[in-house]
Amino acid sequence: SVIGLRVGARFADRVDVQLRARWLRQELDGLESMAYPGIGRFLTDLPTITNRIALHALTTIHLGRASSLRLSAAFQDSDDSSGTIPQGSQLGQTQHSAQRMPSFEATATIADGPRTWVAGARLQAQHLSQHLEQRHSMGDEITTSTVEEVAPIWQLTAAAYAQLQWKLARIFTLLPGVRFEYHNPYGFVVAPRLALALRPSDTWMLRTSAGRGYRTPSPQELGFNFDHSIYGYKVIGNASLSPESSWGVNGDVTFRPHGHITVRAGAFANWVDDLIDIDLSAGKSSGSVVTYSYSNFARVTTAGAQVLLACRLGERLLV
């Protein structure tokens, strides 16, 4: 089930307000024949329930001459549960996980002739927890125990950023920028970026950019237990992960020989330190189930290229 609501209004021709809300509930019923040591084989229900709420409020204040102030507040709430419950038995287990993520962002855009300044700040907090509820047989009695798989923690991210779009000439645009970030518990990082755009004619456009990237481990990578034992594998988090950092370059060329035809070719390369990914070579087998975890890979290089051809056939068809 999905319910969504979106409303907007303008006040005094200078203030736009938008409100969005979305609620999702998803229930999946799985069924598997599973063997339980000491009590035999049972048909096992595998129910999965997901509840998610997303709220977003956006205000844009128009300052005139293409300048504006944008304020955004958001809240996301997610509760998930997945069970393994033998039919005709009081045994079984249910895994519960919860995430909360409030955030706030303010961005100012100031137009100054050939220059456009953008500056802003963002604050985000993320709460996560996960526990496993198990029902055991103790003689003639059924007991329930709860195992805390991920202790409730808060992760805090604060960032300030600035960018300048400067048209130095009719055909040349310079875009330097920088982002300062604080991540709890990982500390501070500075991520600069520089982009250039050259438009020698209406037919050709050339763009290139270079900058630093930085990513902290996600909650799933740090501690969540993704149990797909019925499919033969599990993925568990790794609380000792380090953030990954990178330097990257990319560029593309756009050619428009005709108003209805666009050809774009681009390429990129990234040099990543401590890349976070699932270590498929270090899986540990237990019976028919293989358990994988996340790891940091010391040095990884990625590169790629793509070519895009778009043709507009008439006013309504684009291929």
Structure report:
- The protein has 319 residues and is mainly β.
- The protein has 1 helix and 17 strands.
- The protein has a 17-stranded mixed beta sheet that branches.
- A hairpin with a 4-residue loop joins strand 7 (141-167) and strand 8.
- The longest helix is centred in the last third of the chain and has 4 residues, at 219-222.
- The radius of gyration is 26 Å and the shape is elongated.
- The model has no long low-confidence stretch (mean pLDDT 88).
Secondary structure blueprint with pairings:
Layout: E1 2-11, E2 15-36, E3 40-64, E4 67-86, E5 92-112, E6 115-138, E7 141-167, E8 172-184, E9 187-198, E10 204-215, H1 219-222, E11 225-228, E12 233-236, E13 244-258, E14 261-278, E15 284-286, E16 289-313, E17 317-318
Parallel strand pairs: 12-16
Antiparallel strand pairs: 1-2, 2-3, 3-4, 4-5, 5-6, 6-7, 7-8, 8-9, 9-10, 10-13, 11-12, 13-14, 14-16, 15-16, 16-17
Keywords:
17-stranded mixed beta sheet, 319 residues, elongated, mainly beta
Order of helices and strands: EEEEEEEEEEHEEEEEEE
| Main sheet characteristics | 17 strands, mixed
What oligomeric state do these chains adopt? single chain
What is the overall shape? elongated
Structural class: mainly beta
Proportion in β-strands: over 45%
Note poorly predicted spans. Answer: none
Rg over CA atoms? 26 Å
**First CA to last CA: what distance?**
34 Å
| DSSP E strands, number | 17
The residue fraction in helices comes out at under 10%
The total count of helices amounts to 1
Residue-averaged pLDDT: 88
